[in-house]
Amino acid sequence: MKADAKLRFILFLIFTTAFCSYAYELVLAGILSVLWGNVVLQYTVTTGVYIAAMGAGAYFTPVQLNTKKAFIWIEVTLSLLAIAAPLLFVYSDVHSRIISMPVCYALIALIGFLSGMELPLLMQVLGQDSAVSSKNENALFIDYAGMFAAGILFALFLNRQFGSLVVMLVLALVNLGLALLCSLYWARNDKRILKIELPALFVLFILISSGVLVNLSAYEELISKWIIAN
Hints:
By secondary structure, this protein is mainly α. The chain is built from eight helices and no strands. The chain has one domain (2-136, 159-229). α2 crosses α4 (97-129). The longest helix has 35 residues, at 2-36. The chain is globular and about 55 Å long.
């Protein structure tokens, strides 16, 4: 039963990270289509860059580091990048169009690279902690299911109901929440996580989530103002 609980926890992480990752791609492609036009081109190029970066991230996933700690801090980094990326997209386009394209695609590639590390890291954790012998197929299925759910829900509900910027910020907090949840779950068996990651993540979650919620309207207004000015 203990192994089954660990498996369910890892599969939950895989589904949620895949959902966030694919939704980020859709939001960023949408912002570029607003800034530069040509929706088909922006979504196609963004998808290509994102998938290539994910492949690179999977290939270069660290295997000698503490896998759990690496996953936790990747989630924190993705959360911060998701919050900053829309601002940097619009700011770079408004103030310096010469560097706007490399900046935007570099951010897309970085988010894709880190997202590509998530599944291999979780597979390593699953291999270390679970007695389940057949898990690759389950993990891959859940990963694809998470991306499918993100595409359907974003297109049919989330974007229409809340807007892409709100979705991006909420999912950024989800990534951060996953980091905190993992630190709580894994700290029971890892004193290093208990001493460092758990208190650090608790403080970060409080500060970042409160900052996002308090400044949500100002965030949207600033980006809208820059786009109109552009």
